[in-house]
Amino acid sequence: MVATVVKYEGFSFWYGDFQALYDVDLDVAPRSVVAIIGPSGCGKSTLIKSVNRIAELEAKVRVDGKILLEGEDIYAPGVDLVSLRRRVGMVFQKPNPFPMSVFDNVAYGPKLFGVTRRGGLEAVVEESLKRAALWPEVRDRLRTSALRLSGGQQQRLCIARCLAVEPGVLLMDEPAASLDPTSTQKIEDLIIELKGKYTIIIVTHNMQQAARISGRTAFLLDGRLVEVNDTEAMFTRPDNKLTEDYITGRFG
Amino acid sequence: MPGATRAAVKPGLTAGRKVANAVMKQVFRVLTYLVVAVFGGIVVYIVVRALPVLSLTFITQPPRDGMLAGGVSTCIYGTVALLMLTSVFAVPLGVAAAIYVNEFIGWGKRARLIRAAVNNLAGVPSIVFGLFGLAFFVVFLKIGASILAASLTLAVVVFPIVIVSTEEALKAVPRDYRLGSAALGATRWQTISRVTVPQAIPGIITGMILSIGRIAGETAPILFTGAAFYLPRLPDHPREQFMELSYHSFAMATQSSDITKSMPIAFGTAFVLLVLVFAFNLVGILYRARLRRKRAW
């Protein structure tokens, strides 16, 4: 049996009466990158937002089946959402740093859990910014507003903010979709670097990106998982006709 | 079919469209200036009619000689006390209710129900609140006609304004901030107190400014609950009755024994009330501007 960190088991998801995901089975191995590809509105975002249970903040939702995080059913009654979300970080499509200083953005998470200045907050912030490959650019501007950073820097700041609470899993919802090519390159390099330490599930529209950074790729269409495969195999000889049509640009 | 598209769209702006655009711009311009002119006219009219009585003693002296001479100092005192006490009751309650509805329940049947109730409350004529205040605060709770009872009654009147404006301020805070905070493991309350409310404070202050203007102008709710026709001295306890500017203006305009003497006083009182409301608004606006500057990011 292969070790899995995140395991979807017959997972279905509804927003009200609308079913967004159908019976999804997917295993994510530790310290790997899984890319989720598929056309707009196919349920990619929902697929990752159901791992930190953030989809339910925006609408009335219903689920069937299970998602296991390190063997534990995260939809079981009595699950502590606060500690779940601490273990599963998320980076959003549009960089969403808080309207605070660079330092306060990264310190936000640790402070929630009671880390104080005396308790090493500054070290945590520095370490997180280093891991997010942002430290050299902001070390002299920790007190300036995060909103003054460039879009790419803001996104890396959001990644640093995530890393500061030490999650095991990182969810990324098209993290480079709103960035220019140079910033995108930096984010991709960062993801490749983070792969050794974290389990990453990344949604992307960009198939070259999926090919560059992920070990496995899952193709989602209309809420159904069509194919999950090693990325290289997926892009060279896909098993499924639908996958082939999508990656060769015949639709989507 | 490119041919069909070309046939449907005539080249360039036709004269008719240009004329319609120019005419509509002027229509909206005239209407806007009309509203501004009406407001300016009212202010000028009040100032002109108030001129005979306006002097420093008008704001420093209490009324005397059957309220046909002297000033309105006791009314200013009563109005300021009323504004402050009403804010103390209405603002925390209104802000708390708005946070509960918008941040904790957000959508669904319960939130819709509460919003409908609040909107209905906002539509109730203020005289009804006056009667309610008399029956509930003055008589049932045995508070008696007083500043306290009048403030509580007015708090009910402005409660919906505070809720609605606070909700608007909260809605203006990008949802991404809330999601980002929740995704880091923040509880609802941590997100509210550390991200959402600090962002919404300028908007909440705007709501307070609006409601203070509303309180200062209300007469009906305080008529039965504490406003006195005449008091020889200042109240020194919230359980005492008080004189108040809008009611004094009303009394001078309608209940006077000598209308030639009292009408200028009525206008003078209205003028002082206007200045007072503007002053409160100015303080609010300056404070809000300072907050926005402080976090100019």
CATH classification class of chain A: Alpha Beta
Second-tier CATH architecture of the largest domain in chain B: Orthogonal Bundle
Name the helix and strand elements of chain A from N-terminus to C-terminus, one letter apiece: EEEHEEHEHHHHEHEHEEHH
Output the radius of gyration of chain A.
18 Å
Query: CATH-wise, what's the superfamily of the largest domain in chain B?
Result: MetI-like
Look up the CATH topology of chain A. Answer: Rossmann fold
Return residue spans of chain A where pLDDT drops below 50 for at least 5 consecutive residues: none
Which sequence of strands runs across the widest sheet of chain B?
A: 1-2
Q: How large a portion of the residues of chain B is in β-strands, by DSSP E?
A: under 5%
Helix content of chain B: over 70%
- Which two protein chains have the largest interface (Cβ within 8 Å of the partner's Cβ), and how many residues from each? A-B, 32 and 22 residues
Number of strands of chain B: 2
How many structural domains can be distinguished in the coordinates of chain A? 1
Rg of chain B, rounded, reads 25 Å
What does this protein structure show overall?
The complex is a heterodimer of chains A (252) and B (297). By secondary structure, chain A is of the alpha/beta class. Chain A has one domain (6-247): Rossmann fold. Chain A has 10 helices and 10 strands. Chain A has helices at residues 44-49, 81-87, 102-112, 121-131, 135-138, 151-163, 181-194, 207-213, 231-236, 241-247, and strands at residues 6-15, 18-28, 33-37, 61-69, 72-73, 88-91, 169-173, 199-203, 216-221, 224-230. Chain A has a 6-stranded mixed sheet. In chain A, helix 3 packs parallel to helix 6 (151-163), helix 4 packs across helix 6 (151-163) and helix 6 (151-163) runs parallel beside helix 7. The two termini of chain A are 35 Å apart. In chain A, 47% of the residues are buried. The mean pLDDT of chain A is 92. Chain B is mostly helical and 297 residues long. Chain B folds into 2 domains: 2-50; 56-294, MetI-like (MetI-like fold), CATH 1.10.3720. In chain B, 76% of the residues lie in helices and 1% in strands. Chain B has 12 helices and 2 strands, in the order H-H-H-E-E-H-H-H-H-H-H-H-H-H. Chain B has helices at 2-8, 15-50, 56-60, 73-105, 109-123, 126-140, 147-171, 175-183, 188-217, 220-223, 245-254, 259-294; strands at 63-64, 69-70. Chain B has a two-stranded antiparallel ribbon. In chain B, helix 4 runs antiparallel to helix 9 (188-217) and helix 11 (245-254) runs antiparallel to helix 12 (259-294). The longest helix of chain B is centred in the first third of the chain and has 36 residues, at 15-50.
